Amino acid sequence: SQKIEQNSEALNIQEGKTATLTCNYTNYSPAYLQWYRQDPGRGPVFLLLIRENEKEKRKERLKVTFDTTLKQSLFHITASQPADSATYLCALDTGTASKLTFGTGTRLQVTL
Amino acid sequence: KAGVTQTPRYLIKTRGQQVTLSCSPISGHRSVSWYQQTPGQGLQFLFEYFSETQRNKGNFPGRFSGRQFSNSRSEMNVSTLELGDSALYLCASSLFLGGGEKLFFGSGTQLSVL
Questions:
Q1: What counts of helices (H) and strands (E) characterise chain B?
Q2: On chain B, which terminus has fewer CB atoms closer than 10 Å, C or N?
Q3: A39-71: per-residue pLDDT in tens?
Q4: A72 φ, ψ to 5°?
Q5: Interface test with A, best of B74, B102, B105 (most A CBs within 10 A)
């Protein structure tokens, strides 16, 4: 069956360090992979999209990698700040519709 | 530009009742999709509308239905509410229907079924 796993329900790191979140999937062939941030009581907010033929994408302090052989995406936040504390969701996009399939999310806590 | 607006923000209902949730997408966006979010199951796709037509449907019972109006606004309805329907219902809009579209979410409607 199809499965998306975001390793680590929660991740605690110190301010200034790099946070690395993982997203593994099985039995999918996504054309795109998206990452969203969700704060408590709010809807998810789009961060980055990476295509199946792209290895890496960057935006400011964010970096996403996509390995279709390993069926894995890594999401990095460099020089993390307390304001980065949130739940981060990966979402698979088969490319045929706007429908996304979401992972369960990783809760990131950045402490001083 | 105003974001996606969902009303009401909170709703308390009892088992057996029905509920209607509303979503106004970002101006110009023609695709609206609905998701249910619970602590145990995460975000699960309900359905997607484009140009007033349902284009995709998730694996939910027929008690869950929706529609889209000519101005792209959308409503979803849940009939004969069950305790397990308690969840955050999120609406998202995008410019077009298709892959590679980023979704813009509203803040959701928190539904509690007693």
A1: 0, 11
A2: N
A3: 999 999 999 999 999 999 999 999 999 999 999
A4: -150, 145
A5: B102
Task: Select from A42, A98, A103 the Cβ nearest to the Cβ of B101.
Answer: A98
Q: Which residues of A touch B4 (CB under 8 A)?
A: 43
Nearest CB to B42 within list A93, A95, A105? A105
Which candidate, B88, B105, B110, places its Cα nearest to that of B32? B105
Q: Do A44 and B43 touch (CB under 8 A)?
A: yes
Query: What is the amino acid identity at position B30?
Result: R
Tokens linked to B46: 């309900």
Check A31 against B99: CB less than 8 A apart.
yes
**Proportion of chain B above pLDDT 90, given as a percent:** 88
Angstrom CA distances, B52 to A18, A31, B79, B95, B113, stand at 44, 26, 21, 14, 29
3-state secondary structure of A83: helix
